[in-house]
Amino acid sequence: MDVEAVLQEVLPRIRPTDEERAFVEGLMRELEGTAEETVESLGLDVRPYFVGSLAKNTYLAGDHDIDLFLAFPLDTPRDELREEGLRLGKTIAERLDSYEIAYAEHPYVRARYRGVSVDLVPCYDVESWRDVKTAVDRSILHNRWVLKNLEGRNDEVRLLKRFLKGINAYGSEIYVRGFSGYLAEILVIKYGSFLDVLKNADFMLRQKIIDPGNWLKQEYEVAMRTVRREAEADRPLIVIDPVDPRRNVAANLGWERYGVFYFKAHQFLENPSEAFFFPRGQKSGSYLSELRRKGTHLVTLVFGTPDLVEDILLPQLERSARGFEKVLSREGFKVLGWNVGHEGSKAFIMLEVDRRERERVMIKPGPEFFTERGRDFYLKNERVWLRGRRLYAEKRVKENIVDVILELLEKNQVAMGKNLRGAIRNAEILLDYVPNELEKEAYLFLSREKWNLKQQ
Questions:
Q1: Where would you tag: which of 56, 153, 269, 353 has the fewest CB atoms within 10 A of its CB?
Q2: Is residue 66 a contact partner of residue 28, using CB atoms and an 8 Å limit?
Q3: For all residues of the chain together, what is the average pLDDT?
Q4: Residue 287 and residue 292: Cα distance in Å, rounded?
């Protein structure tokens, strides 16, 4: 199947239907009316704005999360924005189906209405990057820029988003480190189409700096500070935000996710298939067979999942895995790879190591050579020597990796995520065995299918 035929097969599956659009637009009109009535009843000077993919019409079929921003005047004190914004959000949400308070830079309200998630977020009513006071303020500017520049390429953005989701490289959250929806929109606007973004996967990486807002001419000093900072941080891409020269839109994009995109883009262009957009599922197999094939060993620490949000939990699990990798290497074990995650109430750290046990030489100080105990020590030990009047001997002992880990934990010698220390110290440590619910994860990790760049 040629590339155009594949895209024509994919588009009807990702483009919202007329009925879906009507539902979304009706929902947004309803919410806007509710917000305006509530603002008026509370006597506030606040303008509601829809932002995000629904407002830009770049959303995928079935993906209806709504972001309604409540924009306060620029002269509103920060504390007042926080308090009044939360009060306004809660008052609007009380007219919806349910809600909870969530936290980012400041509290906001996450509600549900007619089966759709609705975020009610207080912000400042900004006109330019110089007005930006909180991290969320730019969203209004992002919306305006995309709507002004997209020029009917909405489906091209949908194709890129679905492709990135299919190859597991979508989402700028710290635990994903992939492409954000806004970055996908910028790339389509910059290069013209989904296919042109893929064709430029190599060029982007070599060029490094993408400046769609032309800030390097308009605000050279500010933009160059961003470039220098991000280059020093070794980011794969520096995409100067077209609405704010101080920000790299790709700041959260990691090398691994860009690498996946890089290889998959080449593979798709060479051999187009719907499977890139809708993967058929990962292979399964036996993790024990993988251990036998490689002659390696698997250490798994299993513990209760702490009550932490995902973007705090996963980086702390990764930090802990790196801590084990470092300290076990120092102790004579080679760590060939690690994997972290959580399944339901259980979190885990998996370490693939080269051996179960290490041989250690211990030097045993003995008694003086001319005593009865000295004679006994001399007869019992194979390698014996004198240092002054005292005898010394060399003894070889085998130490199991589980015992080494327990001792390291007891002595507090492993660098771990600060919120995980207690849980990891009480972890169950399993050797060459995992519980049933982790068998697939162990296979994907040991076979490297989890990250297999060639699989499609």
A1: 269
A2: yes
A3: 93
A4: 9
Q: Tell me, what's the pLDDT at 456?
A: 57
Per-residue model confidence as pLDDT tens digits over 268-290:
999 999 999 998 877 789 999 99
Is residue 328 helix, strand or coil?
helix
What tens digit of pLDDT does each residue of 376-434 get?
999 988 899 999 999 999 887 778 999 999 999 999 999 999 899 999 999 999 999 99
User: 126 to each of 49, 130, 133, 215, how far by Cα in Å?
Assistant: 12, 8, 9, 19
Q: Is the pLDDT of residue 452 over 80?
A: no
3-state secondary structure of 136: coil
How far from the centroid of its chain's Cα atoms is residue 38's Cα?
36
The whole-angstrom separation of Cα 321 and Cα 128 is 42
> What integer is the mean pLDDT of 212-238?
96
Q: Enter the pTM of the model.
A: 0.85
Q: Residue with structure tokens 């051999």?
A: 271
Residue 344: φ, ψ to 5°: 60, -125
Strands (DSSP E) contained in 52-133 are 66-72, 98-103, 107-113, 116-124
135 — pLDDT class (breaks 50, 70, 90): confident
Question: Which residue from 204, 284, 263, 264 is spatially nearest to 236, judged by alpha carbons?
Answer: 204
Cα separation, 439 vs 447, whole angstroms: 12
Amino acid (one-letter) located at 397: V
Return the exposure string of 415-424: e unless at least 16 CB atoms fall within 10 Å of the residue's CB, then b.
ebbeebeebb
Q: How many angstroms separate the CA atoms of 427 and 442, rounded?
A: 17
pLDDT tens-digit map of 29-38: 999 999 999 9
pLDDT for 280: 82
Give SS3 for 114: coil
* CB-based contacts of 454, cutoff 8 Å, min separation 6: 263
Pairing label, strands 335-343, 357-368: unpaired
> What percentage of the chain exceeds 90 in pLDDT?
82
Domains within the chain, CATH numbers bracketed: 16-136 (3.30.460.10), 150-276 (1.10.1410.30), 287-356+400-451 (3.30.70.590)
How far is Cα 68 from Cα 227, in angstroms, rounded to an integer? 32
Residues listed for the chain: 456
From first CA to last CA, the distance across the chain in angstroms is 15
8 Å CB contact between 99 and 93: yes
